[in-house]
Predict the structure of Pyridoxal-dependent decarboxylase domain-containing protein 1.
Amino acid sequence: ACRLQNVGEQGHMALLGHSLAAYISVLDRERLRKLTTRILSDTTLWLCRLFRYENGSAYYHEDDREGLLKICRLVIHTRYEDYTLEGFNVLYTKQPVIYISSAARTGLGQALCNQLGLPLSCMCRVPCNTMFGSQHQMDVALLDRLIKDDVEFGKLPLLLVANAGTPGAGHTDKLGRLKELCEQYKMWLHVEGVNLATLALGYVSSSVLAATKCDSMTLTLGSWLGLPAVPAVTLYRHEDPSLSLAAGLTSSQPVEKLRALPLWLSLQYLGHDGIVERIKHASQLSQRLLENLKNLDFIKTSVEDELSSPVVVFKFFQEYSNRDQTSHAAQASTVQHPIISNEGHIYDTFNQWLGEQLAQLVPASGVDVVELEDEGTCVRFSPLMTSAVLGTEIQDIDQLVDCLKMKIPVLTSTLQLREEFEQEVRRTVGLLYIEDLGWPGLGVVRYNYHSDGKNEDKQEKELEKINTELLKKLNELESDLTFSLGPEFGGQKNCVYIGMVTEDLDVSELVETIAATGREIEENSRLLENMTEVVRKGIQEAQLQLQKANEERLLEEGLLRQIPVVGSVLNWFSPFQASPKGRTFNLTAGSLESTESMYVSKAQGTGSTPPPTPTSSLAKQRLPGQKAFKRSLRSSDGFSETSSISHCDDLDKLDQRPPNLSPGQEQGPLEMERAEEQKEVVQVKTDTEDIHSDKSPPDCTKAEDQASQR
């Protein structure tokens, strides 16, 4: 079942606002105009004061991209004076350019171009830093060169979309330098991102505080405060109300102004202190998680500011030792080794599995998996977007850290044993190692079926049958491993996928067991197939022999005995004695035999003893309670030594027992049971001897009686 959102009283207030808006809309026009103007002005004033945006106007919209779209139209109306009269002809003579960071939301630029009716060439994606600074921040120097090139080609730099908290890693662009660049080229600066919520706190980082000087910003209060069905808000500064009306940022219809009513009620209910407390609580959650992650090995964090970062991004990463670094550096200097090139894919797979496990074990944390351009697959914790809705508390963060501590040894052990498993499989005859970088586990193996000139279809069916049976046999073993057919989509066919493992796994025993079980299944399959062929040939041979025996019987009986009435009379006067000649098929020997001996002895012969069924000889002796594929570790030496010592003590007690001691005295239940079994065996032997003595010849018995009488 899906987790229901935490809709508290403030959520009910927001939902009540929609009902009130529908009721207010039926008021008379003058009262509606006064009421909607008051609601709109109060809400705008509160938001501008709360987020330190002076002298701003507000546009309320359902789609969070709609505010930026209206801002683009406002800038087009502002920079192109004849746009209202000439339309696209003005844009054709001097093409506008909108600049968006490469770390922005996916599809944002294309959506703007589609809604504005502009070609995609009007959208310029600005790369992020590669040498200096954060790899998720816009490269300001490169942006300056791009703007200069566009100006030289006769284009008009129109608008720049910056991030105060990128959608992936939550980093903030250098808004101060970007604002100076926009003033230089008379561009509009629009800012969006989750870090804008921290403007309501008492302490705000300088990078985020620079957003208050931008031309417009979009706020998504619904996710920050846990308010359902409240609109997003775009705050902007512009002096010409007519252009704002032409762009659609303001409306002359009073009903349009009622969009702010749910937010007006919610802000009234929460108050200034309640809003600040929610945002502060989310920041404390991220700081709590970041402090715990610093103390964990094999965890690499990617945060912009360790003192105040609302978004925490981390991943599992195992550093190489000095020796490994030297060898890898030598290999990388010559030719890129395939293991190194595949390392990033393996870590992405493992971090994908880690994020899914954490989200499943601690659903209240709200963690998710994010794909970053440089770091690859990471786990993201963004409490400003999830904590208010899910009701995340400090206890959930502590539980998340505990689960992470449990998963790290599993990840490190599996990563270390993957190469050993691959080598063991490649050395084992009959097994084929399948390289699947998208599988989070020990690896993928397939049992190779040795075909004897069979066609591909039959070979494929036999291969599927053997590997399916192999998977069933492996799952029947008492082990902590998970064997499966792999992912539902994109996996290899006819393979056995092995999941995550622990450090006490005996890889050699696992591979040997897989190979032996596969050979056993193949031998049984071949035995059954050969037996089917032998039985078919035996039936055909028996039919031929029975037909030949019938012909011989006709020759012996004569033609007259075959006539219905005459044959009966002739058989009554001169009966014909003929022994029945049947055939029996010996499955063990694979031969056809006569049934004459069966009719003579009145019993069916057992034939030779069938050969034993081939079984795996790798059944390793394990201690009580020990599961398969486990090797003894130092941590478990105490258990094994204790077991061996107790077992030796029992043997010493049995050896030191006096000869006249009865089997049941000072013995455990196992020894008493064995003694009872020995008694039963002796009793059975005695009864057998008595039976044989009773069956002695009568002459001997009479002689003994006569001797006793004398």
